[in-house]
Amino acid sequence: MRRFSVLAIATVLVAGCGAQSETKQADDLGSVAAEGALVAQDAAEGSTTANFTRVHGRALRDLAQKVQDAPAAPPLERLAARITTDLDTLADNPGDERRAGRIQRDLERAAKQANAL
């Protein structure tokens, strides 16, 4: 239930981000990356199903893609592209625990970077 709540909040945060300031976009991107890191952590520990990882990874990827597609500063666009790629890889490989662990660490770093922008 916690995962669905956070995903719902992330959806609301990123909705319509094309008209948002870069600071708001960075905050939203940080939230998406943090949620993605949680999904990746569960996948790395084997404590979630492949379907859950696949569906949530894709949903979060779509949210990050909205930030990537919106007008933004180049550092924000690059970070959004990296997060989108990580989430896409997670969704495409939901049973790969080792890869999920790497993605978890990448997304945790990305969330910190987004919050620093």
Brief sketch in words of this structure:
This protein is an all-alpha fold and about 120 residues long.
Could you describe the 3D structure shown?
- There is one protein chain.
- The protein has 117 residues and is mainly α.
- The protein has one domain.
- Helices cover 82% and strands 0% of the residues.
- It has five helices and no strands.
- The longest helix has 24 residues.
- The chain is elongated.
- 40% of the residues are buried.
Tags for this model:
single chain, 117 residues, mainly alpha, 82% helix
How is the secondary structure organized here?
Blueprint lengths: L1 H13 L7 H24 L4 H20 L4 H19 L4 H20 L1
Helix pairs in contact: 1-2, 1-3, 2-3, 2-4, 2-5, 3-4, 4-5
Mean of pLDDT: 88
How many DSSP E strands? 0
- Taking all Cα atoms into account, the compactness measure Rg is 13 Å
Helix content: over 70%
Identify low-pLDDT runs.
12-18
- The SSE order reads HHHHH
- N- to C-terminal distance: 30 Å
- The number of distinct structural domains comes to 1
Number of helices: 5
Structural class: mainly alpha
Task: Report the major sheet.
Answer: none
Shape: elongated
Strand content: under 5%
